[in-house]
Write a structure and sequence with these properties.
Length: about 300
């Protein structure tokens, strides 16, 4: 039974993950090599807990678990039943973490990666007892989005998958078991197909960025929150899909590189909210207000989708 969890690497996801796990009466130790990241996570933890309150996610009868922070890796993983690796999307960095913890944990301690798309089979090559490694991909913001992908690598034991699936379910979240270990898993493959087409349409001058967001958010986005893609096929009719896809698929973007517009912006350090400019521009005040507004709306939508409003 999993009771003690270590999160290795905090970044933007760590605080929300820690808050949500603790709300499930789990004991969480959160580690980062950077003191600044730990202090930022401490500040973000209270905000995440407030959002969980707004969602009406009450702690179990046993009460709320604990979250503690440390910059000592050995202390973080000591006695952990599950380790969630949440370091940057770089296989070399992740491999360094696995080698660092390998001698500090028991052979049956489950190691889960929150990678957004690196195949678990590739990550397993860098840790002993690969049968205990699994993908556990949270969606951002992790304390609001209830779906978590569970991915087995070639050497992952079925019991490891079952244990993580059951853990996710036990704290009121939605596990989705991905049957094949493909790059990007499922959520990001679908997302990046959409983003590829969106970037292509803007780059070709078909539509302005603001109008594209309106079109997607209030068009397909509004529907897909209620009716998933497979159900949408049935709702629209497979005959309609066959007819439209027979000519439209050939005209959709199929580029296998990064769009020039994205390369130009990243080359100029225009990375989005984190740098103050990307597809749009942001002041610090706008960023703070935008993040609060988005969290409020995501909470409201989730409550409606769950039938609680």
């Amino acid at each position: 039974m999993i009771q003690r969890i270590a999160i290795i690497g905090l970044g933007t996801m760590g605080p929300g993950m820690a808050a949500r796990l603790a709300r499930g009466d789990l004991q969480v130790t959160a580690y980062d090599v950077a003191p600044a990241a730990i202090e930022r996570a401490r500040a973000m933890l209270g905000t995440a807990e407030g959002v969980l309150d707004a969602l009406g996610i009450a702690p179990p009868p046993a009460g709320v678990g604990t979250v503690r922070f440390t910059d000592d890796l050995g202390e973080a993983v000591s006695g952990a039943d599950l380790i969630i690796e949440n370091v940057p999307e770089n296989i070399v960095v992740k491999a360094d973490v696995y080698r660092a913890i390998d001698g500090l944990i028991a052979s049956d301690t489950i190691v889960a990666s929150d990678t957004s798309g690196i195949p678990i089979t590739q990550l397993q090559a860098h840790i002993s007892h690969p049968e205990r490694m699994v993908g556990m991909h949270w969606s951002n913001p992790p304390h609001i989005i209830p779906m978590i992908e569970v991915i087995a690598g070639e050497k992952t034991a079925p019991q490891t998958v079952a244990t993580i699936r059951d853990l996710i379910r036990s704290i009121g979240l939605l596990p989705v078991v991905v049957k094949k270990d493909v790059p990007g898993f499922v959520e990001n493959r679908v997302l990046y197909a959409l983003l590829r087409e969106a970037v292509d349409l803007v780059e070709r001058g078909v539509i302005e960025p603001e109008d594209l967001d309106t079109c997607v958010s209030w068009g397909i986005g509004y529907k897909i929150a209620v009716v998933g893609p497979m159900a949408l096929l049935d709702m629209a009719g497979l005959d309609i899909y066959k007819s439209v896809s027979s000519f439209l698929n050939a005209d959709l973007s199929n580029r296998d590189d990064v769009a020039p517009m994205v390369l130009e912006k990243t080359g100029a350090s225009k990375l989005g909210i984190k740098s103050g400019e990307g597809m749009f521009s942001y002041t610090p005040e706008q960023t703070k207000a935008l993040q609060a507004d988005r969290a409020r709306k995501l909470v409201a939508v989730r409550r409606i989708l769950e039938g609680r409003e």
